[in-house]
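Q: For a teaching handout, I want to show students what a protein-ligand complex looks like in token form. Below are the inputs, and the small molecule is 6DJ. Please produce the holo structure.
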Amino acid sequence: MAPKKPSCLRSLLLPLSLTLLLPQADTRSFLVDRDHDRFLLDGAPFRYVSGSLHYFRVPRVLWTDRLLKMRWSGLNAIQFYVPWNYHEPQPGVYNFNGSRDLIAFLNEAALANLLVILRPGPYICAEWEMGGLPSWLLQKPEIHLRTSDPDFLAAVDSWFKVLLPKIYPWLYHNGGNIISIQVENEYGSYRACDFSYMRHLAGLFRALLGEKILLFTTDGPEGLKCGSLQGLYTTVDFGPADNMTKIFTLLRKYEPHGPLVNSEYYTGWLDYWGQNHSTRSVSAVTKGLENMLKLGASVNMYMFHGGTNFGYWNGADKKGRFLPITTSYDYDAPISEAGDPTPKLFALRDVISKFQEVPLGPLPPPSPKMMLGPLTLHLVGHLLAFLDLLCPRGPIHSILPMTFEAVKQDHGFMLYRTYMTYTIFEPTPFWVPHNGVHDRAYVMVDGVFQGVLERNMRDKLFLTGQLGSKLDILVENMGRLSFGSNSSDFKGLLEPPILGQTILTQWLMFPLKIDNLVKWWFPLQLPKWPYPQAPSGPTFYSKTFPILGSVGDTFLYLPGWTKGQVWINGFNLGRYWTKQGPQQTLYVPRFLLFPRGALNKITLLELENVPLQPQVQFLDKPILNSTSTLHRTHINSLSADTLSASEPMELSGH
Ligand SMILES: CCCC/N=C1\SC[C@@H]2[C@H](O)[C@H](O)[C@@H](O)CN12
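A: Here is the structure, written as tokens, with 6DJ included.
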């Protein structure tokens, strides 16, 4: 389906027979039939069986593959968010190119014969950085996010006046494939409960999208009171372990008539670094789906394909302590992070086939996988040795430390530097009051790594140093809170650190542009290391390697490394945290790799400790469920030849 075109042009684009069959834009409709508790599509009873996938977690070259697999699974619709921060990196600067080409994704979905349930926010949650809100909103520190705060609404209006006109032609009644649009996201779970805000959003959507498009809200059962709004169709979200009858009965208090809708039926769940890998059983998920379909409900399965939090895009939760989301968003979904069908997919397809026609024909086979290595990486240099290149504009000086937001550093890392104003002979406590490290701080004195301070976890180190010694603190932003009562999750040193009895002042802030360095400046002449000790702490390692045969999808395995960031041929693959788990491998889509002997390059920024053998491997299977304790047993279980293989060998691509 293409967006609205003059009917004469449409008839030229389509064979006459098809033109006669397809309803013209002026007769296309997607409506709620309250008399019969159902949807109507072009006047005929319709129920959607939908699945969520996020274009912003899947490289564009893989969109078609994932969408066709979802169509083959029996889905007739997909649901996805639009992350504001993915498209407006700075105020008034917009990016809808490449893997951000939202219209191209809508078109790919149309070509796969999939309708679309769109969720443009402005807040989206989704375990995405700051729930999709741009961090530059926090340059006004007093802003009240997700409320009728005029500063927040002004930014929202400006963003939606760019976004919504782009999707207008893609609304179903205009000839496109968007059948409904969600306003906000689980607003009832947010402390503000600001109806003026929700009414403002509803008014903005109506003003820019017209009266015909179905607008809806989604909330958990406990959020319906503050999350629903008159004029917006109310839907719920719940998983296989929840009481469907009880929740749908509660929903009927808000929508006495019209189709029952579960907008997020959880097929799996998210993972946090340091916690066990989450799964949901095939039997429970399929049973719950069948029960809902028997009721005539429309259902969206969250997630149907999870994908990956590449780069720094993961969000975080707060459950007693700060919990960053892992790089993998596999979600134990029916389609795996690498795009492979799982037993859960086939079981769900069988259930769907009992209620509606599913496409025939074979599902595309799993993608070719490859193993490689182990590769031995070499030391490129300590992060401090590249400071001039990492911060070409030079540092910002301030008496007190400044946050990432104050210096307009959205993601990644910032170095904070001060100088010791007296000699400290005895190990002296060093800490940041009020849990003020957001989120991890790698502390160095004259280039020597002293240890890590971690939000909620580790708040004190003991330091010594000379008068005039450099005290360097590399602070890592581990992703802003994507759920919970306060999304104003400022990053950096939120308070001036204290050494002994001294509040440390006179700071230099170096916002680091690491991705630019990795992309453009490596390989470099090894910079001179100005300190007597060997580099320790944040250090770059790298390896250039050929792949002799064809390439396949693969999973980067970093045994013995601690925590850091990885780039493959300049692409930021995401964070690793081998020491914490449960994720032990990073998904590497084959299109990132050069085949047939061309040179590839892997670059690591290891933040803590490098293994004695600085090796990595590429495996043909992911390891997502191995916390550090389990991990050692897992290492032992890996076949000896896998671990002891010599340097790069011919690919076992298959
Ligand atoms: C008890 C759950 C409250 C938080 N809601 C969640 S956790 C996983 C999912 C995604 O974040 C999704 O974006 C939310 O809308 C609902 N949900």
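A: Two things your students might notice: The first helix runs from residue 7 to 13. The chain has three domains: 44-351, 370-379+514-628, 392-511.
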